Amino acid sequence: MNLDPELMQIIVCPADHGDLEPVGEELVCQKCGLAYPVRDDIPVLLVDEARRP
Q: Among the four residues 7, 34, 40, 49, which has the most C-beta atoms within 10 Å?
């Protein structure tokens, strides 16, 4: 996964506005634990697409 560091500074979890941390091929919310997929280096920040912890 190759995400722009500037992008990582401004995107947050759409569910609770928590910080997102890259883990494997997902972005995981540090607050609620939802894991959002990253497809072709594009974060898919849709709650319906997130994996529950």
A: 34
